[in-house]
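Deviations from the work plan: none for this task. Representative record:
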Amino acid sequence: MTPAPDAGPDAAGAWDDLLRAEFARAAHDVTPGPAPVAAVVRAGRARRRRRTVALSVLAVLGVAFAVAAGTSLGRDPHPAAGLAAPPARPATSAFAPTAGPPPPAVPRTSASFSSGRQIPTPVRTVAPGERVAAAPGWKVWLTADGKHWQGGEDPLEQFRSVTDGNIDLARPGISHQGEGAFHSGLYYGTRDAGRVELVDDRGRATAAALLELPGRPGWGVWYTVTREGGALGLRLYDRAGRLLSELPPL
Amino acid sequence: MTHAAEPETDDGFAAFATAAWPRLVRTAQLLTGDFHEAEDLVQTTLAKVYGRWRRIPAEGVDLYVRRALVNNNLSRLRRRRVAHLLVPVLPEPARHRDAGHAEHVEERAVLLAALADLSARQRTVMVLRYWDDLTEQEIADVLQCSIGTVKTHARRGLAALRAHPRLASGPAPLPAPAPLPGPPLRTPYGARP
């Protein structure tokens, strides 16, 4: 019944007809129930409200993050402090969409090394279990075991382990858990993380905020909020702007 | 506080969702291979569409909804991929669903088994081409890629389907194409009333 695969244009047309019929048959093999319009509208309204609140609060969060990063500078100098110039993007742009290639690496000169000047670290250091308000309705916290987060429509705490053997802490890597507009994940295999970016299919990058436990355990958590869905890739850079790991979009 | 007046502000969304629901679920069923995931996917997609309903031009509703559905499905697959990477053994419900999925494929349609072996984008192109009956240009618009990319996905997807043992030499002869109940292939999801 199936057309011969190499019988020329007629066979190609027969395959098209066959596949159209098969797709239609498979599609009509299910009988959708009535449209849950009320539930959809309710969820849509909630989503619209969250987006409105999120957009208006993001700027505040950005400032708060900058302040937190700045205040953490004094008590938690990065191991690389004093080595190089600060990351090209200030912490205040943690949520701001950026475009174009990553900023060029800044050479680590002996002059800057000898200056002894501490540089702003892009990584916020948090205590184990310290709840971080990552976005409206979303909390993220770290323990020695891994990343915890909670929010959105699911009230349950979620967890990704760094100790169960599923990630290789010896090599730079990154993971992604996306829930609507809120994105987060682990980065690992480096004590010199400088930036994590989400990159959409048009090449537009959104920088993420970074969290680590005291002592630079070699892994951390990133999070950010995007305005649109779609295919998103991930890039992890070190503080000199070098690409350490990449998770391409599907 | 009452929301009695709010439906009036939906500007036809409820009517659109009601009309589009069956076909969207069927499209999602072909994209996901699982009826329940298909309904969840469409519900999530429509909720997102509702959030931007007033800003979607009437003539662009079909494209917007298709694009949202496809993108949400790709996001769903990415989340599942990450979960598979991070969780050595899936929780029981997930494992059970996957096993059941395979059985349903066996029982329901040979086609879904063949589609399951395609990449996500190949599968999407096949569904948009053979179920939604879109042209290559329309598929490129939905996927926001070039026509060349669509052609590549279509060629590889078609070759894989042709070579798939269940389609190429399935035990049950495939029925001749016949008029099917429901909307014609070319029917869009519906226009904004």
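Chain B has two domains: 10-108, 110-170.
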